Amino acid sequence: MIREQRSREKLEGYYQKFLAEGEIDPNVHPWVAESWKESKELGAPTEHMDTTKRLTSDEFHALQEKHRAASEHLEKIVENTREFFQKYNLCLLLLDPECVVIKSYALPYFEMTAGEIEGVRVGVEEVGTSSISIALEHEAPFWLFGPEMWVKDCQKGDACSAPVFVAGELSYMITLVAVERTPLQQDAIIAMLLTMRQSLETYLTELLHIRAAEAILDATPFAVYHVMPGGDVAYANSLGHSRLENIGAKKDEERMPNLNDVVLNYRHTPIYKGFGGVPSHNKEVTWITQAKTYEDITTVVPLERDSSHNVSSVVVVSMPIEDLRTLVAHAAGYTAKYSLDSMVGDCAAFHTMKDKAARVAKNRHHLLIQGESGTGKQRLAHGIHQASPRAAGPLITLRCGDATPELMEQELFGVAMSSDVSHPGRLELASGGTLFLDEVEKMPKTMAARLAKYLLRGASCRINETVERPIDVRIIAACDSDLKRLTERGLFDHDLYDIVSKSVIRVPPLRARREDIPHLITHIVDELAAQHQMEPKKVAPETVKLLTEYDWPGNIKQLQSVLEYAFFNTQKDVIEKSDVNLMGDVRPDNKWKEDKEIFIKAWKSAGGNVSRLANLLGVSRVTLYRYLKKFGLEKP
How would you class 389 by CB atoms within 10 Å of its CB: exposed for 0-12, middle for 13-18, buried for 19 or more? Predict the structure, then answer.
C-alpha cells in the first residue's frame, strides 16, 4: 500500500516510453503496467479527462438520494478535518462501484468545480489508469504517483484510493487526490484515507443493522417503545407511533411525545415501576387516556443502570389484548377450514339453504343453524364466517355438550384464578370474529341468560371478577332439534333464543336430498385423496347405487365415515360395492355380540332403527332385542 518514493522523472520516462513504443519498463509496478495496457487497448484519452459520460439531472438526483447516508457521513469527517485538507491541497471523492462521482469534497478536483465532476463516470474507459481503477480492479487500497496516471492533466499530483465494503459487498470507492505537486506526508494521507474508510464502513454497517432492526420491529405485531426516565418516548416502531396517535400523542417536529402528558395513570403503570428497577413480563395492564381506556399485555425491561444505580431507560413491548387474541387464534388454527363453495349439492332445498347462507353471511346478525346431527352444520358455520366481513378475525368453537356446566362456564366467560392470574374465555377470544356454539340446546339456562345479557351489553365479565371487558362477537348457534319448541317449553333461555334466531338457516337431511349423494361421494373421495396426498380413487356405479339408496340416519357425517373406511381399506383404485360397510368401521361379524362398544357403534350407525340394524347385522329383530337388553339400551 505505502509505495516508496520514486523519481518522478523516471516514472514520466516509463510512461512516455510506453506511449511511444508500447514497451513496459521492468521498474513499473505490475498493477500500473496492467492498467496502462488496458487503457491503451480501450483508447482512453491521454491529454484531457473525458467528462461526457455524465448522468442526467434526474439520474444524478436519484443517485445522491440513494447514497445520502454515505455522502453526509463523509461530509462531517471533512468538516472536522478541513485544516488537513487545506494543508496538503487535497480533494476527496466519493464514487459508486460504477466509478460515478457521487460527491466531491474540499478543494476542486483537478481545477474542476464540484458541479463539473459530480455525476461523471471516471472509470478506466473514460480516464484510463488512475488510483480509482487500480483499487477497484484489485479491491485493495492503492497509492498512485502523478506521472503514472494516464491523463496528462491529472499528473500534477498523487492520488490514493480505497474500496469500501458493506456487508461483504463492494459499495463505494473513496479517493484522496493531491491537486498540486507539493511534498506529501504519504503515511499521514494513507492513514487518513483508511480511517475514513473504516469509519464509513462501520457507520454504514451499523446503519444497515439499524434499518434491518427497524424493519423487523415495524413488521412485528407489537408496539415497541424506548422510554426515558421523564416519560419521553425516544423511539417507537410504526405500530407504536400509530397507537400513540390514536390516544392523541402525535409526534411533532421538535420531539417525540411524553407519556406523562397522555397516560393519566402513568405513575401506576409497569413503565414507571421499571425506572425503579422492577421488570414486568407479559402483564395485563389498563391504560387510561383522555381518548379511551384500553387493556394490553405489556413487558417492560429496565436497561443498564448508571453509577448511581439509576435505570437509564426502559424498553416497552405491548400488544392490545384484542390483537393478541386474534394472533393466538390464527396461530392455533382458529380460522375457517371450509368455504361455502366446499358444500356440494344440486337439489333445490340445498341451493335455497346455500343462497340464504351467502346472504346472511354479509350482515351483522347473530344466527341459528338447525338440522339433524351430521348434516354439515359445522361446515356451514365455517363457510358463513369465511364469507363474512369478520373473516380476518378468529373463529372459535364451543361444543356445549362436551363439559360439565361449571367447566363450560369457565370456558365461555373466562375465570380469575387469583388477583394475578386471570384467563379469558372463548367469548373474549372470539372478539372481532365469530363464536360458534355447537349443540347450543345443551347450554344451561342460567349460562344462556348470562350470555344474552353480555351480548346485549357488548361487554363481558370473567368469573370471580367485576371488571367488564368490551366484546365484539358474532354468534353462530347450531342445534340438532327445534330450538323454538325447546324455548316455548321453558328448556332454553328466551332472551338468547331471541338474539340468535334473527336469522335461521335449516339444513336439510341427506335423505331429503338423495340426488346430491353421487356428487357428495365424488367430492368426499377426492377431498380425502387431496388431504392425505394419496392417489385418487373412483367409485364403482353399483357402489354409488348402494349408497344412494341408503337412508343415512347419520347424514353426511355417516356417509363421510363410510367412505373414509372404504378409501383407506381398499388397495385398488376403484371402490367396489364389496368394499363398503354401511356401519363404517364396524364389521358385521360376531364381535358385536360380546363387545358393547362395537354394538353401540353399529346401533348409532343404524340411527337407532331396529329393523335397519337387524338387516345390517343379518339377524332377526327378536335376536336384536335380546342384545339391546343385554347391553342396557332402550328399545326404540
Answer: exposed
